[in-house]
Amino acid sequence: MKELFQHAAVTEGVTVRVAVNFLPEQSRIEAGKWFWVYHIRIENETGSTIKLMTRHWRITDGNGEVGIVDGDGVVGEQPVLRPGASHDYVSGCPLPTPNGSMEGYYVFRLEDGTEMQAQIPFFPLAAPATAG
């Protein structure tokens, strides 16, 4: 199945694309747990090699509760992207509500040692009505 990236943000030549899907088989709705999987593709269209150093997520549930997640790299990696290269990874997000949202940014180190932030696009997390 070819995934369609529903959301994208471009920051100074770095494109972050997101495809998100609700996973009913990973959710326990009767226990108040909903689960989504998201596929991220980071594309480097800058003129230099960049290394993903850290991530910052702002996760909001349907009650307006906000969780902040900061950490090194993504899923245990700090990928290095040469010009024209891309990096894909998949992760997941549980929520105590059938809807919410995610957004954030990555920090990349450029070849000259400077750092830049690349925006992760805002994307909604919404379970189908039949799942809630």
Automatic annotation (TrEMBL):
Gene3D superfamilies this protein is in? Answer: ApaG domain
Output the InterPro entries linked to this UniProt entry.
ApaG-like (IPR050718), ApaG_domain (IPR007474), ApaG_sf (IPR036767)
The highest taxon in the source lineage is: Bacteria
Report domain ApaG positions: 8-132
Taxonomy, top ranks, is: Bacteria, Pseudomonadati, Pseudomonadota, Alphaproteobacteria, Sphingomonadales
Please identify the protein, giving its name as recorded. Co2+/Mg2+ efflux protein ApaG
